[in-house]
Design a protein that fits this description.
The complex is a heterodimer of chains A (150) and B (504). Chain A is mostly beta strands. Chain A contains no helices and 15 strands. A seven-stranded antiparallel beta sheet of chain A has the order 2-1-7-6-5-4-3, with no helix packed on it. Chain A has a four-stranded antiparallel beta sheet with strand order 8-15-13-10, with no helix packed on it. A four-stranded antiparallel beta sheet of chain A has the order 12-11-9-14, with no helix packed on it. Chain B folds into four domains: 100 residues, 3-Layer(aba) Sandwich (Rossmann fold); 70 residues, Dna Ligase, domain 1 (2-Layer Sandwich), CATH 3.30.1490; 243 residues, ATP-grasp fold, B domain (D-amino Acid Aminotransferase, Chain A, domain 1), CATH 3.30.470; 33 residues. The chains are: A mainly beta (150), B alpha+beta (504). Chains A and B meet through β1, β2, β4, β5 and β6 of A and β16 and α17 of B.
């Protein structure tokens, strides 16, 4: 039975017999020989699934093993609420909005400082601020929700 | 020569200095903040001292703690690296007062060259061209109009307390002037609590070219040629090279700029390494910008083309040695190029990306030098500059050097944090970069003309798919790491903690 691998959303069929062409040479690093052509593929853990790097390119990959075909259902999105989350760890240096404020698309919401640079998080659409989850001076880690818009 | 030197810095530059010290049989003392206990410079140094919490204002910028560490370890000199306290005249003076040699110029030189306005006046007196403009802030709109007309549009408005592009405005014609001044001064007021605005002639498509100088304490001063640093993001350099492609076509510029830099150095009796920065236009005119009274990030570029070790030279000068060569001995051979490898995301406005480096493959081979401050398993802290390493290559000519850089970048793989490695691969392939048509707007222009990525070949996708399938078959958890990894880390943290309490 073939495996289906989604590479940046594009489905590629993988025959388990071809796995003989793959050798793990270092932890997470694979040498692949395809009809005499040599590829080095590095697998990297990412926040959303597995990412692999080869030939100077990076792909997001999802492996669908036919043995456990049950698909994970995605968490419902687009419910009208939008969470603005921290893309990286840092420190909140300034809040530009308050709960209840209406914001326009592109309006600055919050300033986070990391690595000596201040970065303004902007609203990706218009809406109303329903929750501000952080305070001035808070330290945040990647993925923390900062502001919820509606 | 010194017996023991303390390095008041961190990251790749601390490692660079430790290497120079070791080659001279000088002992090294590292200093570190809370988050840098396991940093590479601490691992490599002979001795190390904790100097405070993560914020640099409480550690790497604390003159008292650094001097205390130097005394405790018996260091006879301090190397400041770049950034932090490297251009702080008070720090240099405090070292002197404590009987410890500051490896750099005198406090007086730092003071006289450190203020942009004082340095500009000094440059004029030394007959070095400066960007035409006002010496005093514009008093009123009438005076500003008169001056802008004299300078000929386009002109540039600059905040007198400025930096980082804040309060800067380009003005192309007189009708825009009044509104632009209003905007620029209110922005300057907000950013620096100082609304004063200068007017300068706008240099169109400027190139950033700088001259390396070196002087000893016996009155000898030489220049070691130029570095072109026109590729910048957030007003910070990311690619540097020697020779400058502009100077390759205008060789007389190296002589003229070198002499101008020497006149500025002589005016203050400069000793140690220093860099005189200029803006140059397409016609080959150049204008003084500022002096950096320290070792520069991009110094390896000069080292590769001249063959001199600048950090060793800096140590020898500080120890009182005479310059071991004369101006006429200096030769420039081949071409060198540096890429600053940073933990940041070029696809997201160069947003910083600190975190753990989970995998690392470093380039090597002919003509490749890597000055790195990181290792696999190291967590890049959020508290400092995102520079991880400098990849520097040398070859016979610029074309060969660019091809070699591309080869080295293709060997380079850093996982766990976002980096600009893939972005540099694209830059090396860019036709305008290859032609050497550079200016300080290059990076933002590049995003406008960038080629969309070609589709990956079927073979490449198949190879990626096979490796991913093998990886998940090996029972790796979804995040790509074997399940045992975190457990191992935890165990070792517990061990380290237990050991620490035993030693207390």
């Amino acid at each position: 039975m073939k495996w289906q691998v989604l590479i940046d959303g594009h489905a590629v069929e993988v025959d388990p017999q071809h796995l003989e062409a793959v050798k793990e040479v270092e932890p997470g690093v694979y040498s692949v020989l395809l009809e005499g052509r040599s590829f080095e593929v590095r697998t990297i853990g990412a926040q959303n699934g597995l990412s692999v790097e080869t030939g100077g390119r990076r792909f997001t990959v999802e492996v669908r093993d036919p043995r456990n075909a049950s698909r994970q259902s995605r968490a419902a999105t687009g419910s009208g609420r939008q969470r603005i989350s921290a893309p990286m760890p840092g420190k909140v240096v300034r809040l530009l909005i308050r709960e209840g404020d209406t914001v326009d698309i592109g309006q600055g919401l919050i300033v986070v400082e990391a690595m000596k640079m201040q970065n303004e998080m902007k609203a990706s659409r218009a809406g109303r601020v329903v929750e501000v989850c952080v305070r001035d001076g808070d330290t945040v880690t990647a993925g923390d929700t900062l502001v919820v818009l509606e | 020569m010194f017996r023991k030197v303390l390095i008041a810095n961190r990251g790749e530059i601390a490692v660079r200095v430790i290497r120079a010290l070791r080659e001279l049989n000088i002992e090294s003392v590292a200093v570190f903040s809370d988050v840098d206990r396991t940093a590479l410079h601490v691992r490599m140094a002979d001795e190390a001292e904790h100097i405070g919490p993560a914020p640099s204002s409480e550690s790497y910028l604390r003159i008292d703690r650094i001097l205390e560490a130097a005394k405790k370890h018996g260091a006879d000199a301090i190397h400041p690296g770049y950034g932090f306290l490297s251009e702080n005249a008070d720090f240099a003076a405090a070292c002197e007062a404590a009987g410890i040699v500051f490896i750099g110029p005198t406090p007086d030189s730092i003071r006289r060259l450190g203020s942009k306005t004082a340095a500009r006046i000094l440059a004029k007196e030394a007959h070095v061209p400066t960007v035409p403009g006002s010496e005093e802030p514009a008093k009123d709109i009438e005076a500003a109009r008169r001056l802008a007309r004299e300078l000929v549009y386009p002109v540039l408005l600059k905040a007198s307390a400025g930096g980082g592009g804040k309060g800067m405005r380009r003005v192309d014609e007189e009708s825009e002037l009044e509104a632009a001044i209003r905007e620029a001064s209110s922005e300057a007021e907000r950013s620096f609590r100082n609304s004063e605005i200068y007017i300068e002639k706008l240099i169109d498509k400027p190139r950033h070219i700088e001259i390396q100088i070196a002087g000893d304490q016996h009155g000898n001063l030489v220049h070691l040629g130029e570095r072109e640093c026109s590729l910048q993001r957030r007003h910070q350099k990311i690619v540097e090279e020697c020779p400058s492609p502009l100077i390759t076509t205008h060789p007389e510029m190296r002589v003229a700029m070198g002499e101008a830099a020497l006149r500025i150095g002589r005016a203050v009796g400069y000793s140690s390494l220093g860099t005189v920065e200029f803006l140059a236009d397409v016609q080959g005119n150049f204008y003084f910008l500022e002096v950096n009274t320290r070792l520069q990030v991009e110094h390896p570029v000069t080292e590769l083309v001249t063959g001199y070790d600048l950090v060793r030279l800096q140590l020898q000068i500080a120890a009182g040695d005479k310059l071991p060569f004369k101006q006429e001995d200096i030769r420039w051979r081949g071409s060198a190029l540096e890429c600053r490898i940073c933990a940041e995301d070029p696809e997201n406005n160069f947003f910083p990306s600190p975190g753990e480096i989970v995998q690392l493959r470093e380039p090597s081979g002919p003509g490749v030098r890597l000055d790195s401050g990181v290792y696999p398993g190291w967590t890049v802290p959020i508290d400092y500059d995102p520079l991880l390493a400098k990849l520097v290559v040398w070859d016979e000519n610029r074309d060969a050097t660019i091809r070699r850089m591309l080869r080295a970048l293709n060997e380079y793989s850093i996982a766990g944090v976002e980096t600009n490695v893939a972005f540099f691969r694209e830059i090396m392939d860019d036709p305008l970069f290859r032609k050497g048509w550079l200016d300080t707007g290059f990076v933002s222009d590049f995003f406008g003309r960038r080629k969309p990525k070609s589709m990956p070949s079927e073979e490449l996708e198949l190879a990626a798919g096979l490796a991913a399938a093998a990886h998940s078959k090996n029972g790796h958890s979804k995040n790509g790491q074997p399940a045992t990894r975190n457990q191992k880390l935890e165990t070792s943290n517990w061990l380290a903690d237990g050991r620490g309490s035993l030693l207390r």
